[in-house]
Design goal:
Elements: E1 3-10, E2 17-27, H1 32-39, E3 45-47, E4 54-56, E5 61-65, E6 70-74, H2 78-89, E7 98-102, H3 105-116, H4 121-135, E8 142-147, E9 152-159, E10 162-168, H5 170-182, H6 184-188, E11 193-194, H7 198-205
Parallel strand pairs: 2-5, 6-7, 7-11
Antiparallel strand pairs: 1-2, 3-4, 5-6, 8-9, 9-10
Helix pairs in contact: 4-5
Length: 206
């Protein structure tokens, strides 16, 4: 079940206080409306009722999709991360789950989008690596959706203060899936509660 609490917050703009809802755990089967709010990021945005200032909320939360056998922990604390790994690895009922760790709201949203599209996040990270190598630049890429008749993968990245979009052919993703199949040892590194991101990809490829 989803776990909810209340917390007081001060508006950084006008200084007025308000009570906000904080979810420490979200079960999207029981609360499907929360799934949409995570997916579009609105769950983590608070609008001051006094002045209208919008603030990005920063708090840890467990995203749980029982249907997909998926758990994603958003945590900002290394000790909490270590404890979560121990709990996850120590529960036999989670052996068939995919467990992921993320350190910011944007990464949580991206993981939700990836798994909602039925994609392998290891292959998606490898796609990002290929893109960065081809572009010759350190692009901060985030997957947002699949699009078009061919199922292109759509990524966003910041450039000159704006968010740009980049479409990547499904064939690139499929090539990355093929690489993973030929290298089962890499796939095995994703077992348990792990952080699959750019740093992970750089480590594996090296």
């Amino acid at each position: 079940m989803s776990l909810l609490s209340s917390q007081s917050i001060l508006c950084p703009s006008c200084g007025k206080s308000d009570d906000i809802k904080i979810y420490s755990s979200i079960n999207v089967r029981e609360d499907p409306d929360l799934k949409e709010k995570v997916s579009d990021g609105s769950l983590f945005v608070w609008t001051c009722p006094t002045c209208g200032h919008r603030t990005l909320l920063r708090y840890p939360v467990l995203y749980h999709n029982p249907e997909s056998r998926l758990m994603i922990w958003l945590t900002y604390d290394k000790d909490a991360e270590s404890q979560a790994k121990k709990v996850f690895d120590g529960m036999d009922s989670l052996n068939d789950y995919t467990g992921r760790l993320v350190g910011d709201v944007g990464s949580l949203i991206e993981k939700v989008h990836i798994f909602d599209c039925g994609l392998n996040d290891l292959a998606v990270e490898m796609c990002k690596y290929v893109i960065r190598q081809e572009k010759g630049s350190d692009l901060s890429l985030k997957f947002i959706r699949m699009d078009g008749a061919e199922g292109d993968l759509i990524f966003t990245y910041p450039k000159d203060g704006q968010m740009e979009m980049l479409a990547v052919g499904l064939n690139v993703y499929e090539d990355c899936v093929g690489i993973l199949k030929r290298n089962p040892d890499v796939e095995s590194l994703s077992k348990g509660l792990v952080r699959i991101d750019e740093e992970w990809t750089e480590t594996v490829i090296r």
